[in-house]
Backbone:
């Protein structure tokens, strides 16, 4: 019979192996040592227009299916897509990345020059506000 602790330990070992990590067990305590060169960048793309500010205490309006342009000086730029609720998540090599977002029609844009540092084996959070639209809204 397998107890709950050994089942949970098996799940930790399985997950750690997928993430490029080594796991050791000292006194039933999991120590996860990461050997990956990648981290994760995640966040929310939302409306941050000066003409449409949310009421105090109200969450900003998410931008579903937004496009997040990701670049770095020695890496070919690429695009990640936010889900229908404006959330995005992408695994990236550790380093500083430049981020620029647009709505799905590419008519509303975030500010230029956003950057974020991704650390290996960690998750960086960057919410990106769209601040202007080419044709207004």
Residues:
């Amino acid at each position: 019979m397998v107890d709950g602790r050994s089942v949970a330990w098996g799940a930790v070992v399985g997950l750690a192996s997928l993430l490029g990590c080594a796991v050791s067990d000292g006194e039933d305590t999991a120590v996860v040592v990461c050997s990956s060169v990648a981290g994760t960048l995640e966040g929310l793309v939302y409306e941050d227009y000066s003409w449409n500010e949310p009421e105090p205490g109200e969450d900003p309006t998410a931008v579903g299916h937004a496009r997040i342009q990701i670049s770095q000086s020695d890496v070919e730029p690429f695009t990640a897509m936010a889900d229908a609720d404006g959330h995005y998540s992408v695994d990236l090599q550790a380093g500083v990345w430049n981020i620029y977002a647009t709505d799905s029609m590419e008519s509303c844009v975030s500010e230029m020059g956003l950057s974020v540092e991704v650390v290996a084996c960690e998750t960086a959070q960057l919410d990106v506000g769209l601040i202007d639209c080419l044709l207004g809204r």
